Fold these 2 entries.
Entry 1:
Amino acid sequence: MKKALEGLVVLDLSQVYQGPYCTLQLAYHGAKVIKVESPKGDILRERHESKVPHEFLMFNTNKYGVTLDLKSKDGKKAFLKLVEQADILVENFTPGVMKRLELDYDEVLKKRNPRLIYATATAYGLTGPYQNFPGMDLTVQAIGGVMSSTGYPEMPPVKAGPAIADLLGGTHLLAGIGLALYQRERTGEGQKVEVSMHDALYPTLASPLAALYDGDPDNYCERTGNKHSGLRSAPYNVYPSKDGFVAIICATERHWQLLVDILEQQHLLEKEEFKNTISRAAHMDEVDQFVTEWTKNINKWEIVEILTEKGVPAAPVLTIKEVANDRHLIERNMIVEINHPTKGKVKVPGSTIKLSRSIVDNYQPAPFLGQHNEEIFENMIKKEEERI
Amino acid sequence: MKKALEGLVVLDLSQVYQGPYCTLQLAYHGAKVIKVESPKGDILRERHESKVPHEFLMFNTNKYGVTLDLKSKDGKKAFLKLVEQADILVENFTPGVMKRLELDYDEVLKKRNPRLIYATATAYGLTGPYQNFPGMDLTVQAIGGVMSSTGYPEMPPVKAGPAIADLLGGTHLLAGIGLALYQRERTGEGQKVEVSMHDALYPTLASPLAALYDGDPDNYCERTGNKHSGLRSAPYNVYPSKDGFVAIICATERHWQLLVDILEQQHLLEKEEFKNTISRAAHMDEVDQFVTEWTKNINKWEIVEILTEKGVPAAPVLTIKEVANDRHLIERNMIVEINHPTKGKVKVPGSTIKLSRSIVDNYQPAPFLGQHNEEIFENMIKKEEERI
């Protein structure tokens, strides 16, 4: 057994980021993932004239691609044949779509295949007052508190640039599938795995929520720029350097002692106002001023080398262009260059999960629309029909 | 079998957010999670005089708590007894700490218990040039590209307020454990699961990376405020309402047609510059102006009701205080009120993963430091020694 999920078949009806990221990881760890697109294709394809925008390539590596019209009788029939042979089905339609397609899990799919793990990822989940709100990463960041806790206090709320709602949702879905696979090994039964982006964002608010519950609610600060979201830790900020910005944080007393040594400000250790996390947080601006005095005349990577060598957490603020060529991400196979038949060399993400007994070492570019129709339908439907 | 992970024992050496969030979900789904703290306790306890800051309570529900000094001979001996009976070990020390404690997975733990799943979560992983950098959520957001892609173009880079690096790391770790548990059922063997916050952030950059690779690199925009991170979609923004802000996005042609109907601007459908995603993205500011003209005179929830009822993704920007009392999150058991022996009523997050065959219906508050020493040591160490 070379990979964790060898032998498993996944039907992937999902689109854009949330579902496809989940099934990408399933594919990397050995599952046969069949991306089932409508004849029009994943809506993400529309973002570029080529119909293979870079983000589509990032999330569909190592998948098979077939097209089926689930609204047609033949399409549905073929799909149900695939369901009978599948271990996992992933979809991120808005609630109700699968039912309208007469492919409801409880009423139809579970009866066809009781071992099926049915994984559904939505914006708000299948229950609760917002269940029918259509939602995407941006709107879930808005209603989920990400925007109001991001940015500077004097500026309007702003989203996190990265697609965090989508990716947190997709990763929770993946985790849920892992737990359901384990449970199926013990019981023989499949189940429904349900995840929402909105739910997935809530625990990320731990620091601001803690400030709200443990602190003074009347002095509660919604947005804190680069300071700690609960204003409960210092030093904790992004400081100007000679050539950009550098993030520095002292999470323990040891970090603070090391930093003070590097700054040659040992006298601070004796001061009552800096004696522990709580008192330093109360004198945050003074703390930040000491640090800035030192950082502003040094280059960012030099600061990071000095601090990290001593053991103080620090990192440069990198641009997207710098991240795209990050030597560390390349060495860890998080940026993998592969050949695409029409786009040439493209860079796709590798597996975020490194398993010592399931090495990811093969990368096939995302399928064209319907690329594997013949292969999949021939092998999984016709042969099955002949067998019967 | 009432819950997915019933019968499994987890040793949790992790601190702060990343590891503890992973083990929280393991505990919710039925594993017996033993939080092993040093006699000083999880560093997160230092954030509040009570030693039970709210964020600690959020991430340690349903866990047992014991203290062990792993640097002492007796502490190590007791820990190894627990390892022999454990299914999963979770730690998020900086790389090298477990080796210095003479508790290295390959050299020591695996030999004691070949079925052990050893899950390690770090800032940068166990390989690569940054492996020895100490890191926390803030610094990983800096080096990982989150900051440079968050905020307004005319302002400095800013972090995402929520702890996204920690939580994405922790969720990937949970997923990796799920896959490893499945593989262990098939092979009988444990393995090492490795996850880093830095790796986990990289795929969230899909939109800005796509803009970089598919677009014009010279006109590449690092930060786009609330516009699409790749400037590849419109309408996609946060618009002013009479009483705050509202996020609106048209992900499909259908959304756009519905919105234009609601705005009573059907003539826009005939214009070349708004005919599809690509052309609307090229005329983003004009599109945003039409939308703003309509939103600015209406209350945010009213806008959301009008749009979502028709099927257009929209959501109000909520404050943290509003999120903390969100009726949808409460109904979905994402905000659960429980009794804490010293703090009284506290609100902890429920399970983000809803499994139809593993219902989460019991919530015990986070343990005090060493609360279950007697119970665990009596049952798992003394009885084991007597048995031998």
Entry 2:
Amino acid sequence: MEPSCGSRGPGPAAAAVAAVLPAGGSGERLGGATPKQFCTVQGRPLVSYTVGAMERISWISHIIVVVSPENIEKMNSIVEKYGHKRVTIVRGGVTRHRSIFNGLKVFAENNFSNQLLQKPEVVIIHDAVRPFVEEDILSKVVMAAKDHGAAGAIRPLVSTVIASAADGFLDHSLERARYRASEMPQAFLFDIIYEAYQQCTDYDLDYGTECLHLALKYCKTNAKLVEGTADLWKVTYKRDLYAAESIIKGNLSQQVCIITNVKEDVAQVNFLLHESLKSRIKVEAVSVTLSKNDGQLQDIFSGQCYNFVCISDKKYAVEETQKLVDMLEKSNTPLLYPVVLISVHLDVSENTSCSIGMEELTRIKKFAREVKKKNILLYGILFQYKDCLLLQETVNSAAALILALIMDRNPELIGQLLVA
Amino acid sequence: MEPSCGSRGPGPAAAAVAAVLPAGGSGERLGGATPKQFCTVQGRPLVSYTVGAMERISWISHIIVVVSPENIEKMNSIVEKYGHKRVTIVRGGVTRHRSIFNGLKVFAENNFSNQLLQKPEVVIIHDAVRPFVEEDILSKVVMAAKDHGAAGAIRPLVSTVIASAADGFLDHSLERARYRASEMPQAFLFDIIYEAYQQCTDYDLDYGTECLHLALKYCKTNAKLVEGTADLWKVTYKRDLYAAESIIKGNLSQQVCIITNVKEDVAQVNFLLHESLKSRIKVEAVSVTLSKNDGQLQDIFSGQCYNFVCISDKKYAVEETQKLVDMLEKSNTPLLYPVVLISVHLDVSENTSCSIGMEELTRIKKFAREVKKKNILLYGILFQYKDCLLLQETVNSAAALILALIMDRNPELIGQLLVA
Ligand SMILES: [Mg+2]
Ligand SMILES: [Mg+2]
């Protein structure tokens, strides 16, 4: 969408909306040296998730990420690696408010050489460490800001808030129902929040934290408060990183693509496995022999599917797996996360006392270590297809292994051949 | 320690201290049917972790768990299953304050037939959904309560707190530095908090949340505020369960016990594996042939080690593993969590083109499914010991697999034979 400064249409889509993400924090509370916005979850820095959440929304025309001077280079490489568009990196100040102000100045002082950096009607301010923000709440705060000048997401208080006296004793406790936690995103008519920052004191810039407060104090704008969901929480402590990791692993495990050729003996296993997985996860089936120009697979890559199952009746054959690896590599989609690739080896031999050769196991491990360098986690599953009576049981076992491997995404287990 | 009501010694150890854990909440915020105190982490309900954290502290003479009437039976079975001692289950009221009051009444109205339920000097009040409470903070609030009548743990506010006007607009925001989040544990002189509950109004009992507030309002006792650590957080949302799961898995992965016989060919692998693991985890080595009366192993069980590695040069032999399973079963220690048991099969044959028979793999899987019923997660690692040049590499690979299996505790991967 082109910015259309000044329009007041019915939805956020009709307004020029930009976003400023302060990402200058020092991460002290995590107890580690890495500021929390640069901590990685599934190998990807949190700030990239948050930028991604904003980018997905077509009516946000531009995203300013404000980082401290020492992290500008790091942020540049993140933007490049994850293919972020519509992002400008801005040098932060020594406090959160000074950083946000720097971000806003880019729009106010832009000489219009860059069309995208034209002053927006509404600006969203959102923390880089709140990666799970959804379009719904962004739309709500933007609409409310258009109508009322300022708006912010709120949540119920989890704990009672108390005032302490100077001597470290309880002075009084607040009645919990009357107060709310002020969260992000917030949104403002650009002219209001920029005016507030221009008017405010050095004390405000150095010790304040709340943009809503500045809009009220300097522009007499009482922000509209919008109830947000629990997803808006701020990654603050180490435990929040654990939680983010689990949520993201869960999100990555929503969909699997099954690739198979359609020989008759494979078809039944394919069908049953598909059915078994379908009850617990979205399954995309690609029933073709892989070829380099396969548009269907390319669509699936672009659709952010990070889990692939290759079913092959060529025992331990790495050829088809290699083809998929090549396609992933040649696809223009940046790999935001490690891809899980599970090679299911169908053993249809009648020989009941078969065995697995160590050389083959070693070969699979070696191959897995190679493709790991391409951010692909390769695992093998051996599927013995002999006894028709046990077929459903084996299918269920294979499905459980596939789901476990997808959920865990464990890099230490690559190259292992598991038995269904 | 025997309760010594009325003593005012130098530390909590000299006071009679009891604890009341309100566990009557409905868990609405988790969005699930199970109240959060009964949600399981590694199969064990959160409330059992919290009771366990209290039980470990010798100077807490008794623990009252207050649950809603429909959960009394469930709580009884938890106490039995996890072998909790010094616990009395009390029927809760319809609100948090009414539940706490019910808990306190047990001490006040006790006719002294039960010595342990004698009125304590100090009572701790702690949430059942804050499982990571440490002795340090409990000791601090108890000491402060002895000195000042009331005390409570506090934390800095994560978000700014705002007051909303009736129309849903911002009224004002609080200056973050002047306020704190009131957390748990809290502690009180029993007579003060009991007096407060007796004096307070129905409105307080129905709509209040803060015990510190009651002590101030009805007994003019300004609580001493004690800065707590981030561990004190309350499991409130689903993401908090994810975080708790990661923390507990991390705690369970601190220690591994390696069991081996000391044949010469095994000794070198044992030594190198020990060294490789030691740099990342506490290793207890038991270099004996297992026997049923082995006191050393019994001590390790009691010491809450939940990870065992059996190194054997009998390829795929389940006998030694079976012995350990039997010992775990016969030990009187209740299994609080699933035990991870990794059977490392040393293959010292000179044959370079060896293979693994499918029958053996099937046998290991079947055995693993059997011991799973005993809450033991069994995994196999095949360790090929042929080429001296590659020995260190294989050792490192085995150590990485062992750590991954211990960290993940994945029940879907039991019975698999991984190759180091
Ligand atoms: Mg703010
Ligand atoms: Mg309270």
